[in-house]
Write a structure and sequence with these properties.
The complex is a heterodimer of chains A (about 190) and B (about 120). Chain A is built from eight helices and no strands. With about 190 residues, chain A is an all-alpha fold. Chain A is globular. Chain A starts with 9 loop residues before the first helix and ends with a helix. Classes of the chains: A mainly alpha (about 190), B mainly alpha (about 120). The interface between A and B is large, with 42 and 34 residues.
C-alpha cells in the first residue's frame, strides 16, 4: 500500500473514494479487511466463504458509499454491510447444500504457497470456533484477531462493554477447553 | 492488551502478504467500474451538466420575476414621463390631461389654460 494514506482518517478516505479515488478506496480495504473478515468468518464459520463475502461486501459498500452518513464511523457501517451480506450468503448456502451434491460447484483449491501445517491449524481453529455462538465468535475474533477494544466491539454489536467482556471470557474458556493448552502453545510458538 | 489473547494468526488473512495482495487486487478489479463512474461524475464537465437543469430553472424564475417587476414599474413611469414632456414643452396641465384622456376641452377650459400660460 502506498505510504501516503497511512495517517489519513477514514472520513477523509471515504470522501476521496466517493470521488473515485482508487488509492483511497484501496487504503480502506487494506485497513478494514481483517475486521470485515472476522465478522464474516463469525457468521459463516468458513474462511473461503468469508473471503468471498468480504470481497462482495467491499464492492457493495463502495456502490452505497453515499449512504454512509457518518464517514468517521465508516468501519461500523461497513461491518453492518458485511454482516447482512454474510447472513444472506449463509441462507443461500443452506439452500444450495440442500440440493443434490452433483449440482454443487467444486471448491477452489487453496493457494499452493500456504503451508499444510498452517492450513491444518486454520482448520482446527475454524472447527473450534464453530462450537461457539455467533456473537461469541464475533467478539473473540474482533478482540483477539483484529485487536478491537471491548467498548468498540460492544458498539458495533449493540452490546454493553460488560456484555462484550463476558462473551469474550466465555468464548476463550470454551476455545481453551476445545483446543487444549498444548495446541494453543504450539500454535503460539509458530 | 491482555495475555489471555488467543493466537488467531493462522486465520489472519493479512499474514500471507502475497495472498492478501491478491485479495485486495481482486476487490479493486471488481470496484474499478464503480470508481470510474464516480471519477466521471466529479469531472468539471459533468458538474456543469449536473447543474444545467437547476440553473435553467433558476434562470426561468428570475426571468418571470423580472418581467413582473418591470410590468409594475413601467406603467406609472410612462404616465410620469408624459406629464413631464407636456410640462417641458409648456402645455398647460389641464390641456395635457384632456389630450391624454382624448377629451375635447371646453371654451372655458381653453380660456383658463391660456390664462395659466400668461
Amino acid at each position: 500500500m502506498n505510504e501516503e494514506v497511512v495517517g489519513i482518517t477514514d472520513a477523509s478516505l471515504v470522501g476521496r473514494a466517493r470521488r473515485g479515488d482508487s488509492a483511497a478506496f484501496e487504503a480502506l480495504v487494506r485497513r478494514h479487511y481483517r475486521a470485515a473478515y472476522s465478522v464474516a468468518l463469525a457468521i459463516l464459520e468458513n474462511g473461503m466463504d468469508a473471503e468471498d463475502v468480504c470481497q462482495d461486501a467491499f464492492v457493495k459498500a463502495l456502490a452505497k458509499l453515499d449512504d454512509c452518513r457518518q464517514p468517521e464511523k465508516f468501519v461500523a457501517w461497513l461491518l453492518q454491510i458485511v454482516r447482512n451480506h454474510a447472513r444472506n450468503y449463509r441462507n443461500y448456502r443452506r439452500v444450495r447444500l440442500a440440493q443434490p451434491l452433483d449440482t454443487l460447484a467444486v471448491a477452489s483449491p487453496l493457494s499452493s504457497d500456504r503451508g499444510a501445517e498452517r492450513s491444518e491449524l486454520r482448520d482446527v481453529l475454524e472447527e473450534a470456533l464453530r462450537q461457539l455462538s455467533e456473537v461469541q465468535r464475533e467478539v473473540v475474533l474482533l478482540h483477539d484477531l483484529e485487536g478491537w477494544k471491548h467498548r468498540d466491539i460492544g458498539k458495533t454489536l449493540g452490546l454493553s462493554e460488560g456484555a462484550a467482556r463476558q462473551h469474550l471470557f466465555a468464548a476463550r474458556r470454551k476455545l481453551r477447553e476445545l483446543l487444549g493448552t498444548e495446541t494453543l502453545e504450539e500454535h503460539s510458538n509458530g | 492488551m491482555d495475555d489471555d489473547r488467543i493466537d488467531f494468526s493462522a486465520l489472519d488473512p493479512t499474514q500471507d502478504r502475497v495472498r492478501f495482495d491478491e485479495l485486495v487486487a481482486s476487490i479493486m478489479e471488481k470496484a474499478e467500474a464503480e470508481l470510474g463512474v464516480r471519477r466521471a461524475s466529479t469531472s468539471p464537465l459533468s458538474q456543469l451538466v449536473q447543474w444545467r437543469r437547476p440553473m435553467l430553472a433558476a434562470a426561468a424564475v428570475i426571468a418571470m420575476v423580472s418581467v413582473g417587476i418591470l410590468w409594475q414599474v413601467q406603467v406609472p413611469e410612462l404616465e410620469e414621463e408624459s406629464t413631464g414632456i407636456a410640462e417641458a414643452i409648456g402645455v398647460p396641465n389641464l390641456l395635457a390631461q384632456g389630450i391624454r384622456n382624448n377629451d375635447m376641452p371646453t371654451t372655458a377650459e381653453l380660456f383658463e389654460a391660456f390664462q395659466e400660460i400668461q
